[in-house]
Amino acid sequence: MNERDTLKINNKGHLEIGGMDTVDIAKQFGTPLYVYDEKHIRVMMRAYKDALNKYYGGHGLVLYASKAFSCKAIYKIAAQENIGIDAVSGGELYTAFSAGFNPAKICLHGNNKLLSELELALDNGVGLIVVDSFREADILDSLAAKRGVNQDVLIRINPGIEAHTHAFVQTARTDSKFGFSIFDGSAENMLTYLLDKRNLTVKGFHCHIGSQIFEKQSFELATEKMLCFIADMKKIHGFETETLNMGGGFGIWYSEGDRAHAPEDYCEYVKSIIDVIKAKTAEYGLRQPFLMIEPGRSIVGEAGIMLYTVGAIKDIVGVKKYVAVDGGMFENPRYALYQSKYSALLANRADEPCTEIVTIAGKCCESGDIIAAGVALPEAESGDILAVLSTGAYHYSMASNYNRNFIPPAILVNEGKAEYIIKPQTYDDIVRNDAVPERLK
Ligand code: LLP
Questions:
Q1: Nearest Cα to Cα of residue 266 among 218, 301, 299
Q2: What's the rounded Cα separation, in Å, for the pair 166 and 174?
Q3: What is the pLDDT of residue 40?
Q4: Dist CA 244 CA 256 (whole Å)
Q5: Which one of 297, 302, 306, 398 would you pick to mutate in the ligand 1 pocket, going by the greatest count of ligand atoms within 8 A of its CB?
Q6: Mean pLDDT over residues 369-397, rounded?
Q7: What is the 3-state secondary structure (H, E, C) of 13-69?
Q8: How far is the CA of 256 from the centre of ligand 1 (A)?
C-alpha cells in the first residue's frame, strides 16, 4: 500500500481521491477539509486481518487504535470489517457505543483512567481493560465486585525497548509513564497482585513500543522479550498467558524520506511478530497466545488528505517564502509538536512541475503555526487548492478550537461519492459551552 493507491491525477491535471476530483470536493464542501478514502481504510483493516488468518490461523484480533481518528463512522466501518478497537478515553468509548460498536471487542487503555471511564467501561461490558497501575487494579476490582461481574484484564508491560522511526534501542532502565517494567520486577509484582483479585481475570499482557516505526527488528525484539517474560511467569507462577497484545506503531509514508522505509505490505510486520511467537513458544514449550495488534496510523493515515485554500503569500526575499492556508495548528498540530514532514501539492495544478520550496503556514496568531516546511510546489497563487497528504491519523483527533477557529469537517469518499462524517462547526458551537456568571451580566 502506498500513497498512489488512494490518489491519482486526472486528465484536468487535478488531484483525485477515491474517484473524486478534489477541486470539485473543495467547491462542494469548502476548505479546510479532512478527506478520507473509505476503500483505503477497509483495505488496510483487511490487510491486517488477512495476515492474522494467513500466518496464525486467525488466532487473534485486529484492534483499530481509534485514537488515530475517532468518530462514529470509523467505528461503523471497523464493525463491518469485523475487527475490534482500542479506546483510551470515555469519549472514545462513548463514540463507539453511540455507533453501536460491540463492547466485547473493545480494549481500553490509559495510564490514568478516570473512575468515570472505568465505570463506563464496566457498565457497558468492555471486553478487556489494560491495567496500568496498582491503584487502578484496586478500583477495578471493587467496581467489578459492586456490579457482580468478573472483568478480563491485560497488564501493560514495558519490555524495555524504545523504538524510534529509524532506530531502535534497548533501554535497561525505563522512564516511560506507561506499563510495568520486566526488568525491575514490577511487571511480575503486578501479575501476582492481580492474581489475588477475586473479580478480575488476568488474560495476559500488552505492550506498545512506539509509533511510526519502520524496523521489523523492533517488533521482533519486543515480541522476544514478551515471550521470555511469559515463559518466566509460567515457570515461576504457573501462569498461562492466553492473550498477548503487541500494540501498534507500524510506520507510514509522509514524505520522500519515508519512501525507502514505508512498507508495501503491512502483512510483513504481523508475520515477523508471529514468526517470533511460533519460534519462542516452541522453544519454551508454551501455548501459542491469542494475538492482538493495534494499528492506528497505518489504517487511516494514508487514507486521509487535507484540502486547503491558499490565501496570503509572503516572500521574504532570500530568506523564506510563506504560503498561508485557511487551516493551521488548530487542525494539524503535528508540525508544531513534532516538526513532522509532509508532502503537499496544488490540487488544481497537480500536473505542473515544482519550481520552488516554500513553508506552508496556518492562520493562527502564533509564529510556530506551520503545517509543513521545505515543501516543493509550483508557484502558488491565492485561491489555489492545496492538498497535504497522509493526514488521516492524529490530525482531526488532535485538533482544537485554538484561536476559536472551527475544527474543520471531515468527509468520507467512496466510489465517486462524498458524504460528511463530521459536520462543520458553526459560531454557535464555538460559544455553546461558554457560561457568563450572573454578576458579569
Ligand atoms: N496502542 C497503544 C497502546 C498506543 O498507545 C498507540 C498509539 C497505538 C496502539 C497505535 O499506534 P499507531 O499504530 O497509530 O502508531 N500523536 C502522535 C502519535 C501518538 C501515538 C500514541 N499511541 C503522532 O501524531 O504522531
A1: 299
A2: 20
A3: 96
A4: 35
A5: 297
A6: 98
A7: CCEEECCEEHHHHHHHHCCCEEEEEHHHHHHHHHHHHHHHHHHHCCCEEEEEEHHHC
A8: 22
pLDDT of residue 174: 64
pTM: 0.96
- What pLDDT is stored for residue 169 in this prediction? 55
The verdict on the CB of residue 29 being under 6 Å from ligand 1 is no
What are the grid coordinates assigned to 118, written together? Answer: 472505568
Give dist(CA 103, CA 85) in Å, integer. Answer: 9
- Helices marked H in 242-390: 267-284, 297-300, 334-338
**Ligand 1 atom at minimal distance to the Cα of residue 301:** 14
Catalytic positions are 365
Span 318-342, pLDDT tens digits: 999 999 999 999 999 999 999 999 9
Q: State if residue 249 touches ligand 1 by the CB under 6 angstroms criterion.
A: yes
55 lines ligand 1 (CB under 6 A): no
Atom 19 of ligand 1 has which residue's CA nearest to it?
A: 211
Residue 204: partners with Cβ closer than 8 Å, 6 or more residues away: 154, 155, 230, 241, 242, 243, 244, 245, 289, 290
123 pLDDT band, cuts 50/70/90, is very high
Query: What span, in angstroms and rounded, lies between the C-alpha atoms of 211 and 294?
Result: 11
Any ligand 1 atom below 6 A from CB of 68: yes
pLDDT of residue 258: 86
The one-letter amino acid code at 371 reads: I
- For CA atoms 326, 332, 336, 341, give the dihedral sign: negative
Q: How far apart are CA 434 and CA 404, in angstroms?
A: 12
User: Hey, which of 205, 294, 298 would you mutate to test ligand 1's pocket, going by the most ligand atoms within 8 Å of its Cβ?
Assistant: 294
Query: What's the confidence (pLDDT) of residue 70?
Result: 98
Q: How does residue 90 score in pLDDT terms, banded at 50, 70 and 90?
A: very high
Verify whether ligand 1 is closer than 6 Å to residue 250 (CB atom): yes
**Ligand 1: which atom is nearest the Cα of residue 213?**
15
